[in-house]
Amino acid sequence: MKDQDGSITADDVAVLAGVSRWTVNRAYKKEASISVKSREKVMKAAETLGYVPDLLATSLATDRTNLVALLVDDFANPHKLVMMERLTRILRKSGYDTLLVNTSDEEDASAALLNASQRRVDAAVLIGVSFNDQSLEAALGAKRVKKLIVFARMSGNDNTISICCDDSASMTALTQYVFSAGYRNPVFIAGPQTQSAHLQRKEVFLSQWERTAGKRPDFLPVGSYDPKMAYDLIAKTFRGLAKSELPDVLVCENDALAMGAIDAIRYELGLQVPGDIAVTGFDDVPQAASPHYELTTYRQPLTDMAKALVDVLEGKSNSKDLNTFLGRLVTRESA
Amino acid sequence: MKDQDGSITADDVAVLAGVSRWTVNRAYKKEASISVKSREKVMKAAETLGYVPDLLATSLATDRTNLVALLVDDFANPHKLVMMERLTRILRKSGYDTLLVNTSDEEDASAALLNASQRRVDAAVLIGVSFNDQSLEAALGAKRVKKLIVFARMSGNDNTISICCDDSASMTALTQYVFSAGYRNPVFIAGPQTQSAHLQRKEVFLSQWERTAGKRPDFLPVGSYDPKMAYDLIAKTFRGLAKSELPDVLVCENDALAMGAIDAIRYELGLQVPGDIAVTGFDDVPQAASPHYELTTYRQPLTDMAKALVDVLEGKSNSKDLNTFLGRLVTRESA
DNA sequence: GATATTTTTGCACCCGCGTGCAAGAAAGTT
DNA sequence: AACTTTCTTGCACGCGGGTGCAAAAATATC
């Protein structure tokens, strides 16, 4: 029995179909020169044998794996789950599979990256946050990685393609909304301050607000996009302050921070949201819609961004301006 | 230049080191018979050239990819994020990479699965929920998948290895806790009722409670492990009922449902948790600890389970009793 | 110093499929 | 019918490395 080890090769199909192995493979190639008869014979034989072409061998021969490494380092943020779902689904639709690489452990990050490159991924997509320059550099150092893409985040590195929504436009919209809603004393809750790949939300908000309201707001950087961390920091920072010393709105860099903020305001400061302090987020994670948070936030056009990613992978990305995606402000009760 | 296309092969290293290609490869094999001198020469040459063995070629030759497909179909449950983090990290530590396969789209599920098998994954790990029998069957049909593992869930299929915590023990503990806390009128909030791979929590709870309190509780099946769905169903089911008609505790199959339940109780029924209706969950997702939920729940020993998974992958799993992991009850304010 | 052992190394062939080219078959021309 | 042109097909060789065995080198034995 040929298939006793469970693997049927093109050769097996070839003998059954009465053609050569190469004809078998041609049958699977869309634009191959092969007669309809042969293709049918092959396909029928393939079906009865349960043959499927081996992607390993194909990849080795073509130097194209149709594999994308997705580097994630921040599993505390529920938005990552949303991104993963969207990316894997859309990538799959275009024929790509996703290698999930956990880079949350600093030590293992470069090893994991090296490993992915040894698998000759067609591209590495970073949806992490605290990618310090070493990690990025390591990624670039792995020559085998043909493309390095920073997703949903700007990149300062030239060897990198970044696909993200227009932080400037989005934060401007948010700023205007917050201002016109009557808030006058905001504090910006920022995430980790990274160098290579970062968000511009803080800068945009601070300068936009200054331009609009005349004074530059304070900001509070949280060590990571973790609701708990935001909770603790906000509790620590604002506890015991008089009403007049408190901000009237916390503009948070994303929903993870915003949810921590809301909890802290309610359960540590004993205040109302939005009555005493309003809160805004960014991302529109599923939980943001819960009646408990009712978070005013900004939803990125993830599907479009993912499609742009596919275009980049297939080399048909027209230009470099992939940082101008526009999402939409989702206004709820929290501000 | 050899490396103009970015790929240095063992041959390149061989000429630099002045040995044959085979000696180069031997240098990378731990128990290979090679003189220390040669190994050093090779390693030095490899380093200056930046050589790393190609995993694609290795996999093809050895029929071992060190790749595990992780099939996920339920991205609404934050616990999935926790599992993914844990699994990817521990698998990586043992030399495995993870292929993330999104099977949430029913149509694409089998295609995705087929694709994974074409990559000759060493195993497919299901951490999904609504795997109906077709999906499972499809997975088994893909001969190339050497092992099929159902993680954190029982499997009725014999060709499948299931690694999960002891639903019986855990739910018994939970039942006892709830009963001794004085609750007498529980309703069980169940997830989708699947066949092949399912949880036994409902059955265990119902029978345990019957044994303890004398009467079999009602249960409410939710279409998916989605907080929103649970929210809507609970709102619809209990709205307008008199206090006496309401349960005093909702025992939920997992935290996702429990969080939806809590929100519904508070924001739709206008009642207190746990004052009017208490709630318990299962999984101990990060959000369960938030002051808003303070959810009493049960934490599975994910790390141990992941390690057991590695044992299975490496073929050194002693027996079939991988369903007896014990977690611990985490008691908080919600019940 | 010659022979027997053991260690190290090289090599042919294989994993499953892709590419470019040349031979063979089919279709089109006059 | 003989000859072109076009379509199909087969094949050598390559992708990068693993395996088992035999030749070569190093070491041990008497």
From TrEMBL, chains A, B:
InterPro entries: HTH_LacI (IPR000843), LacI/GalR-like_sensor (IPR046335), Lambda_DNA-bd_dom_sf (IPR010982), Peripla_BP_I (IPR028082). One of its GO terms (molecular function) is transcription cis-regulatory region binding. Keywords: DNA-binding, Repressor, Transcription, Transcription regulation. It holds the Pfam family LacI. Residues 8-62 form the HTH lacI-type domain. PANTHER family: LACI-RELATED TRANSCRIPTIONAL REPRESSOR (PTHR30146), RIBOSE OPERON REPRESSOR (PTHR30146:SF95). This is Ribose operon repressor.
